Amino acid sequence: MSQSINVVVVSGSLRDPSRTHVLLQELVNALQKRLPANVHWVRIAELSGGLAGSLERDTASPQLLPHLQAIESADLIIAGSPVYRASYTGLFKHFFDLVDYQSLKGVPVLLAATGGGERHALVIDHQLRPLFAFFQAHTLPYGLYATPETFTDYRLTDAAQFERIERALDPVEAFFRNAAVQAA
Ligand SMILES: Cc1cc2nc3c(=O)[nH]c(=O)nc-3n(C[C@H](O)[C@H](O)[C@H](O)COP(=O)(O)O)c2cc1C
Predict the structure, then answer these.
(1) Which residue has a Cα nearest atom 28 of ligand 1?
(2) Residues 146-167: pLDDT tens digits?
């Protein structure tokens, strides 16, 4: 593949450092070994004040507009959030409340989450997946969930998690390689 894909990564954590950010960064690193990609990051922690104060799209903070425009024209979205009270963070949802509801149709979305324990691993399928179903996005079948045990000092150190990252990326690579063949 010669043409780069436009990837938007949304990290729903409100903290820095962030385990969610580390997991997403490892995903991006592995993706870039497989496919040429331009990566745009949306870090909710950095947008928090402007995002919380932007109640409508028409009056949204100018700081948000490049991020909204990037996601609305993305080829691939990687969406990750820490689990807060058995769901994604409130500001992660608020960001998507401002995204044009018709702009994500058919866009592949890779889902990821981190939580304090295994108990809420289904946040991927019970919370994140329905949100992107609303947008008629194409959520990829295999999501990534990580607990604190898979990290050491905010570094991902669990070999099994790296294998899961590769497994999650197989359908992503197939999707874009097939699209490139069809376009040729
Ligand atoms: C307000 C709050 C609520 C949380 N709720 C849950 C929860 O319901 N289930 C869970 O497994 N972990 C929960 N956690 C733990 C975080 O999901 C976990 O520490 C996560 O990895 C933090 O990600 P971050 O470092 O990217 O912010 C909660 C943490 C906070 C601060």
Answers:
(1) 84
(2) 999 999 999 999 999 999 999 9
